[in-house]
Design a protein that fits this description.
The chain has helices at about 10-15, 20-30, 55-70, 85-105, 125-150, 165-175, 200-205, 260-270, 285-305, and strands at about 1-5, 35-40, 70-75, 110-115, 155-160, 180-185, 210-215, 215-220, 240, 245-250, 275-280. It is an alpha/beta fold. Strands 1-2-3-4-5-6-7-11 form an eight-stranded parallel beta barrel, surrounded by five helices. Strands 8-10-9 form a three-stranded antiparallel β-sheet, with no helix packed on it. The radius of gyration is 18 Å and the shape is globular.
Length: about 300
């Protein structure tokens, strides 16, 4: 496995203007990352309003990547392919195609896009709604995968948020899209968002994973907390609600939270997976500490299990 870092782990540094994405790349190399995943929060590679590509920054990222010998592994962007209005939905497909163009300019062979908005109201995340909107998800994902094929890019869906999440839903979507260049970015922590046991879900999903986010959470009963948190603040170490509302979650340093990372990482290795693994930290601690400790923890587990 190639253990690296997602730029999202350093999100506070980037968004607060303390480090540029290229400085984060140099930091990642310094703590032993074998690759860097780009998540454009706090920097822009395509301006969705003007339609312009940030060619200078793209060129600088490529230059630094080559200079420090840190491969780019993935480009991950938000999206909402389930917009109710057909025109808005078509516009979203076109917007995401431009980000596929960004991935091509970066020389990447894979890119993750969301299917559903992270901010979708929890009460609409029902099995009935999923069945109703499933054909739209399949059609739009096929359109993006077909567009990406010209570049040799594989588009990825992640078990992310509260709607297109859960092992059965993502496996079913990938099967229905039925494109060789469409697959799963497996996030080890996000199954907890929909109240699914991560060890069970990873066991089911690891055999089809094309990339991995290695992430850990603290999990607590909602009625035992003191009222802090709120649904759409999963960053900065805030507590947020699982889909059921029974549990509250907060990001932790890898292997220091409540997920059985030793078992989970072992399950992934048992499948023969040898691709990119991004350490994704979104906890309360300093991003540099969380990132460096997470990379060291992953390496320790792999060496001692």
């Amino acid at each position: 496995m190639k253990i690296g870092l997602t730029s999202y782990s350093m999100n506070n540094y980037i968004c607060d203007g303390l480090m540029s994405v290229c400085e984060v790349m140099r930091f990642a190399k310094g703590i032993g990352a074998e690759h860097i995943e780009l998540v454009p929060f706090g920097f822009t590679l395509h301006d969705d309003r003007s339609g312009e590509f940030n060619e200078p920054l793209i060129a600088e990222i490529l230059r630094v990547s080559k200079e420090i010998d840190l491969p780019l592994s993935n480009y991950a962007v938000l999206g909402d392919l389930l917009k109710p209005d057909p025109d808005a939905r078509a516009a979203e497909v076109e917007r995401l195609k431009r980000h596929i163009d960004v991935a091509a300019k970066l020389g990447l062979k894979q890119m993750r896009h969301d299917v559903s908005s992270f901010r979708r109201p929890l009460e609409s995340n029902t099995p009935v709604a999923f069945e109703r909107e499933f054909p739209i998800a399949v059609e739009t994902c096929q359109a993006l995968a077909d567009y990406a094929a010209q570049y040799g890019i594989t588009t990825l869906v992640e078990n992310h948020g509260f709607f297109v999440n859960g092992s059965d839903r993502v496996i079913r979507l990938i099967d229905a899209v039925d494109r060789e260049n469409f697959g799963l970015l497996l996030d080890t922590g996000n199954f907890t968002c929909v109240d699914e046991d991560p060890t069970v879900a990873v066991k089911k999903c690891a055999p089809i994973a094309k990339m991995v986010h290695l992430k850990d959470f603290y999990i607590r009963r909602a009625d035992r907390l003191t009222g802090n948190g709120g649904l759409f603040r999963c960053d900065s170490g805030c507590w947020f609600s699982s889909n059921s509302g029974v549990s509250m979650l907060r990001g932790s340093i890898l292997a220091q939270g409540d997920l059985d990372i030793w078992t989970i990482l072992g399950m992934i290795r048992e499948t023969g997976y040898d691709g990119y693994v991004s350490i994704e930290f979104e906890g309360m601690e300093d991003g540099k500490v969380g990132s460096e400790t997470g990379i060291a923890a992953a390496r320790y587990i792999l060496a001692n299990s």
